[in-house]
Design a protein that fits this description.
The structure holds two protein chains of two kinds.
Chain A (H helix, E strand, L loop, with lengths): L1 H13 L16 H17 L6 E6 L3 H10 L5 E6 L5 E5 L10 E3 L4 H14 L7 H7 L13 E6 L5 H13 L5 E3 L4 H15 L1
Parallel strand pairs in A: 2-5, 5-6
Antiparallel strand pairs in A: 2-3, 3-4
Chain B lengths: L15 H17 L14 E2 L3 E2 L5 E6 L5 E6 L5 H14 L5 H7 L9 H9 L20 H11 L6 E6 L5 H13 L4 E8 L7 H9 L1
Parallel strand pairs in B: 1-6, 3-5, 5-6
Antiparallel strand pairs in B: 3-4
The chains are: A alpha/beta, B alpha/beta.
Chain lengths: 203, 214
């Protein structure tokens, strides 16, 4: 009864619209479209190469020039880094002692601190001389550019070093703003030390 | 007993926003995608903080795979005749006696990694069928790679030519050194090493510099 009445009241309010016509939904089933959309997304995600490879510059000196460059490196500002087997890193400062006492072992995570501390040491010991204004001019008047001019890193990968290690250490030069570095062959004496250290570490 | 009429709720969910987002993502990926060129050898490059883009054309690439095998590729998008020049140069200087078909096949070969004696055999097969290659012989004096670089240099004479080295993480340093030796023999002292990008570690000089500028 109540329903009937209510219904009747409604009809009146609605006016001449009359019978409740079944409203056709305007909705479209979008499921297949979504399916297809996500299929395509998946496809593109898999095929895309998000990080495109980057190029890293490497300049090697001419062989003849090499020797002069090396001789110019001041002993006090030199840091020699050797790369060995299994990502091992060895280094010494200045000249290698005949008994190998300043030959130290590091890893790729600790070598950065060594480079930084050596650089700071070189900067601390820097003595101003007449060559500095020339270096400033080369660096657009940057007066800090002369401070680390004696700092040279010599990189010596041995036969067991991987390409990754080599690139990593070159990258380390960029990261730490080392302006002068050279890649040189390892000497027999150094190689012996590296091998001896590797052998003792295995025990 | 008056029946309580529950309004029948539709199970239909409005998917419009969902579709909107889906297609937005789809559009992004379509725009951002750059298809990888086919790479017959899988190389995992090391990471570096470099931000320089790779040259797409006018470049010669030396690939070192994880076993230390060396391959040589020349990238020249615009000028396909470069390939002919290179293979002709190699053919005459090394006396290989390649047929025109084999020479034409060279331009379709993405990379070459065989000694000169096997080059004829390699180019006899269609590019798609070229299976495992033994690598270009290389030694401390540069090996056969020297001649490839020489030919590429002469073919690109007058144009800029960049040299790229793409090495695998696991390849050994001596191979890399030999490649450099081969490049040095041709008076090439500047190379680009292909690496994957990486952020500058926080707190380092480079990090400070980049954040100062940016």
């Amino acid at each position: 009864m109540a329903q009937m009445e209510g219904g009747g009241g409604d009809e009146h309010k609605k006016g001449p619209g009359v019978k409740k016509a079944k409203k056709l939904s305007t909705r479209v089933d979008m499921t297949p479209m979504v399916d297809l959309g996500f299929l395509l997304i998946t496809f593109f995600i898999f095929t895309t190469t998000m990080s495109s490879p980057k190029a890293m510059n490497l300049n090697m000196p001419k062989d003849t020039k090499n020797q002069e460059e090396l001789n110019k490196a001041k002993e006090s500002g030199a840091l020699t880094i050797m790369l060995g087997k299994d990502n091992a890193v060895y280094y010494y400062e200045g000249q290698l002692a005949p008994d190998g006492s300043n030959f130290k072992t590091a890893t790729f995570s600790t070598i950065r601190d060594e480079i930084i501390s050596k650089r700071n040491e070189v900067i601390k010991n820097h003595v101003h001389d007449d060559n500095c204004p020339k270096i400033w001019a080369e660096n657009k008047g940057d007066k800090t550019s002369c401070l680390d001019r004696d700092f040279v890193v010599v990189i010596k990968p041995d036969v067991d070093a991987t390409y990754k290690n080599t690139v990593d250490i070159l990258d380390e030069m960029t990261i730490n703003n080392v302006k002068r570095y050279a890649m040189v062959d390892i000497t027999p004496q150094e190689y012996q030390l590296v091998q001896a250290t590797e052998a003792s570490g295995k025990k | 007993m008056p029946s309580v009429k529950l309004p029948k709720k539709s199970t239909f969910v409005d998917m419009t926003p969902f579709v909107d987002v889906a297609f937005l993502i789809l559009t992004f990926f379509i725009m951002a995608t750059k298809f990888k060129p086919p790479e017959p050898v899988e190389i995992n490059t090391p990471n570096s903080v470099s931000t320089q883009d790779l040259p797409e054309s006018n470049a010669a690439m030396v690939t070192i795979d994880k076993e230390g095998k060396v391959y040589f590729t020349v990238l020249s998008e615009k000028d396909r005749s470069i390939y002919n020049e290179i293979i002709n140069d190699i053919n005459t200087s090394r006396n290989l006696g390649l047929t025109p078909v084999e020479k034409a096949n060279y331009s379709k070969t993405y990379l070459v990694g065989v000694p000169f004696v096997q080059l004829k055999q390699l180019l006899d097969q269609p590019a798609a069928l070229q299976a495992k290659q033994p690598g270009i012989p290389i030694d401390t004096t540069g090996g056969e790679l020297t001649y490839w670089i020489q030919s590429a240099k002469s073919a690109f004479a007058g144009q800029s030519l960049k040299f790229m080295i793409k090495g695998d993480n696991a390849s050994k340093y001596p191979v890399f050194k030999n490649v450099i030796e081969a490049l040095k023999k041709n008076d090439v002292y500047k190379y680009n090493l292909i690496t994957a990008p990486e952020d500058a570690p926080a707190g380092t000089e480079l990090y400070k510099e980049r954040h100062k500028a940016g």
